[in-house]
Design a protein that fits this description.
With 100 residues, this protein is mainly α. Helices cover 82% and strands 0% of the residues. The radius of gyration is 17 Å and the shape is elongated.
Length: 100
């Protein structure tokens, strides 16, 4: 399981570094970059949670990581929604919308 976690982390980090030049692009490209970044972060903290559950025989490390990951993904979702809404308003009015 650990080996698969390391391979998944490597794949996600490769995606993050490939997409890094485009991270400030439109909402679609930024969304892909944020998802890849979040997946890499998730790989790291899930491996940490697995170690925490194994060493403590408690579910609390797993629950803490789930809460952290939910917060990270919600934060990214809010960023993308704000950017997409701004891009939508720009397209509708033909002028640049104010930054949210």
């Amino acid at each position: 399981m650990g080996a698969i976690g390391v391979l998944a982390l490597a794949a996600n980090l490769a995606s993050v570094f490939l997409l890094l030049p485009y991270k400030d692009g439109d909402a679609n490209v930024r969304s892909v970059w944020l998802c890849s970044r979040n997946d890499a972060i998730g790989n790291l903290i899930v491996m940490g949670a697995a170690l925490g559950v194994w060493s403590t025989t408690s579910a609390w490390p797993d629950l803490a990581v789930a809460a952290i990951m939910a917060g990270i993904f919600l934060s990214s979702a809010v960023q993308i929604l704000r950017q997409a809404w701004g891009e939508y308003r720009t397209d509708e009015t033909g002028t640049k919308a104010a930054a949210a």
